[in-house]
Design goal:
The complex is a heterodimer of chains A (232) and B (240). Chain A is an alpha/beta fold. Chain A has helices at 31-39, 88-103, 113-120, 158-163, 219-230; strands at 7-11, 14-19, 22-30, 43-47, 61-64, 108-111, 125-127, 147-153, 166-171, 176-179, 184-189, 195-199, 206-209. Chain B has helices at residues 41-48, 62-66, 98-114, 123-131, 168-173, 228-238, and strands at residues 16-20, 22-28, 30-39, 52-56, 71-74, 118-121, 135-137, 157-163, 176-181, 186-189, 194-198, 204-208, 215-218. In chain B, a hairpin with a 6-residue loop joins β12 and β13 (215-218). In chain B, α3 crosses α4 (123-131). Classes of the chains: A alpha/beta (232), B alpha/beta (240). At the A-B interface, β2, β3, α1, β4 and α2 of A face β2, β3, α1 and β4 of B. β3 of chain A pairs antiparallel with β3 of chain B, so a sheet runs across the interface.
């Protein structure tokens, strides 16, 4: 018998969704998230908003996925006019999961919204709307559009060991990290210098990325994350 | 201020209840993206009854998932392939997904083999009946005697279901219950399962297997009808 594959929890949003002839609140997440975990050797399970932190004891790794804007009150701001509808229940349960994962040194990969949330709770601050922010007007696609741009990775970081010093990443976000708080910056967008990745070095695996590695198929990053979750 | 209101003083781990999900194409972030979906009412009902809901996806091997879980819910969704009960596609049977059918069949069979607590809802109820030798009506609105069973044109209706005494569901809910109807197919023959609930028109609304610790299967949606007792019993048996 081969050893069991590590269990990877993936958080999900819930929002009003068309279902057959009805519209109802549904948990929804692109299939790319669980497919990449499966492809890279993990067992994906989806964690709905409002979930108990107890789940941390049953999983080997945690992905905080992309999704809606986080509540600006987390980083001490009022809602700007371009901040979309927020989901405080999801914010609260994901913050609890991130904190518990860090406390228990559980491998943690934070993507897009997850990356922004990771920074915000480490005393970071976000730009609420890049297209109206001086210097980042042309950062990349948002509102349904996806673009690609270069990302330079900081020498000596864990991310550099995994992915090398320059990659192509995708962009489909309208908010960005202005200040990562106490986290270490490990990657910057090559065309405008936006913060694209952070990590906590003292932990086994704690990386946050602004782009969507599940969508652009950054297998090396997933593989490294799942290897950490397996404890190898 | 946002705070985590969770009470951490829990002595023992609450049971993990897997809930199947459906894959559909939706405009989500970008147009026509392949997404995993499940109405939030399912995880909410599990959580409120004291379990930990986990949403499971069809790429993962059924046994690998059952090894993790304490209980399982096969949720509602699209029509099943009539091939599973030896029939051709009716013109009103649409949007079938063989991969989802096969995955859920493996989950149901694996759960019954392990005697894992199992709740089957709507599509799940129909799939359970089909693989136990049963058959479905493929379109109730054109089936003699069931034309008025329930609304299918975007509206839900409610109707009474009489439950059979000496059944598990009778023990949980009593002799009669109000269930909802948003389905256009129904169970014609429940195979080797025990029929334990019917509407006035005679449609099979609830089935069980008495040999299992907990196997309840309903045509209606207990997660939408506030039937918390079903979920509480599922969680209770899953905790044993």
């Amino acid at each position: 018998m081969s050893s069991p594959r590590p269990i990877i929890g993936i958080t999900c949003p819930s929002r009003p969704t068309k279902w057959a002839k009805w519209e109802l609140d549904a948990v929804v997440i692109p299939t790319t998230y669980h497919k990449m975990v499966d492809r890279c050797g993990g067992i994906p399970i989806l964690i709905p908003p409002g979930s108990s932190v107890e789940i941390i004891d049953k999983i080997d790794g945690l992905i905080i996925s992309g999704g809606p804007d986080i509540s600006p009150e987390i980083y001490g701001q009022e809602n700007g006019k371009f901040t979309n509808e927020t989901y405080p229940e999801q914010d609260i349960s994901e913050i609890a999961l991130i904190k518990s994962a860090i406390e228990k040194d559980l491998p943690l990969l934070c993507i897009c919204r997850g990356f922004q949330l990771l920074c915000a709770i480490h005393d970071g601050v976000l730009y609420q709307h890049l297209p109206e922010t001086n210097g980042f007007e042309d950062h990349g696609g948002w509102d349904g559009n996806v673009t690609e741009h270069g990302v330079n990775i900081v020498e000596g970081s864990r991310l550099e060991k995994i992915m090398g010093n320059r990659i192509i990443a995708n962009s489909t976000h309208h908010q960005g990290v202005k200040d990562p708080g106490s986290l270490k910056i490990t990657a910057l967008s090559s065309h405008d210098g936006l913060i694209e990745a952070v990590e906590i070095e003292k932990l086994t695996f704690c990386i946050g990325v602004q782009w969507h590695p599940e969508r652009i198929e950054h297998v090396s990053l997933y593989q490294a994350f799942i290897d950490s979750a397996r404890g190898s | 201020m946002l705070e985590n209101s969770e009470n951490h003083s829990v002595n023992r781990m609450r049971p993990l209840i897997g809930i199947t999900t459906s894959v559909n194409l939706r405009d989500y972030e970008t147009q026509d993206q392949s997404v995993v979906m499940i109405p939030e009412s399912y995880p909410k009902a599990v959580k409120e009854a004291g379990g930990i809901p986990l949403l499971i996806t069809e790429c993962v091997d059924a046994n690998e998932l059952l090894d993790i879980l304490d209980g399982l819910i096969i949720s509602g969704g699209r029509d099943i392939n009539p091939r599973l009960y030896g029939e051709e596609l009716h013109e009103k049977t649409t949007d079938i997904d063989d991969q989802q059918d096969e995955w859920e069949v493996s989950l149901i069979q694996g759960a019954i083999d392990r005697d894992m607590p199992l709740l089957c809802v709507c599509r799940g109820h129909q799939l359970l009946c089909a693989i136990r030798g049963g058959k479905l009506f493929q379109h109730l609105p054109t089936t003699k005697g069931f034309e008025k069973h329930g609304e299918t044109d975007g509206k839900w209706s409610n109707h009474k279901i009489k439950l059979t005494s000496n059944s598990l569901i009778y023990d949980i809910l009593g002799p009669e219950v109000i269930g909802n109807s948003g389905h256009h197919q129904g169970v014609f023959d429940a195979g080797d399962l025990d029929v334990v609930g019917r509407t006035a028109d005679g449609l099979i609304e609830a089935v069980e297997l008495a040999s299992c610790r907990f196997l309840v299967s309903t045509q209606w949606h207990p997660e939408m009808c506030g039937q918390k007792e079903i979920f509480e019993r599922l969680i209770e048996v899953s905790s044993e």
